[in-house]
Amino acid sequence: MDPGYSELQMAPTKGFTPDQVSRYARHLILPEVGGAGQRKLLSSSVLLLGAGGLGSPAGMYLAAAGVGKIGVVDFDRVDASNLQRQILHGTDDIGRLKAESAAETLRNLNPDVEVVPITEHLSSETAMRIFKPYDIIVDGTDNFPTRYLANDAAYFLAKPLVHGSILRFEGRLALFDAAKGTGCYRCLFPEPPPPGEVQSCAEAGVFGVLPGIIGSMMAFETIKYLLNIGRPMIGRYLLFEGEDMTFRELKLPHSKSCPLCGENPTVHELIDYEAWCGTAAMEPSEARAS
Description:
Elements: H1 5-9, H2 18-23, H3 25-28, H4 34-42, E1 45-49, H5 55-65, E2 69-73, H6 98-109, E3 114-118, H7 127-131, E4 136-139, H8 144-156, E5 161-167, E6 170-176, H9 185-188, H10 201-204, H11 210-227, E7 236-241, E8 246-251, H12 273-277
Helix pairs in contact: 5-6, 5-11
């Protein structure tokens, strides 16, 4: 007999099918989750920006946890070079749209989850419409125009934004909920770096396991936020160094001089982020550290 069975018998499982009771058993016996929390997850929605290195583990754990609706934004196609780290895709998926490949994998992982592949380009013209139906945004993008766009759109729509980035052996993690006065990505980086100053993963490389670590933590923070459990990463910026296996945490206060959420904002609407950053928005499939 399953050692958790007797405890599960006492969990509030009303409204769950027998298959769901079995699938979510380890959640249902957690006091911090239980039946109410699992129902909350099943009624929640997450928009995943990128089905690449970070989006792969984040998406898989969100789906496995039973997040009811997951939108996957990615207009890139699967390439053989992706398979070293982008575990949503396999050899047979080479050439397919990543959003479609990801949707198939996530549906197979958990049929309870509605997966919406979104293959259009994320831009100032499309972001607000794409973001609006979702409770929380998870940003695994790999370029500065899209990162600032995601930050600003999430702020204007009063939606929380989970941020992750990776490069070589390093990763970073934060959770912004700027509409509640807790700071945003621009509080940390008011201006983008000069074009070409920060290398991409294609230029500098990325250790294959690294996105699994950071992407899993992105999913962890997302689920915590949806369930309102634990201490969220709001106001904190986590830095991971894989070669030494060390973590450092920086304070991330709300900046009064932030051009978006500060006392005298100068950004009042979405802008041309490619022109502002001086670089094109590439495929939203993998994040570079910044």
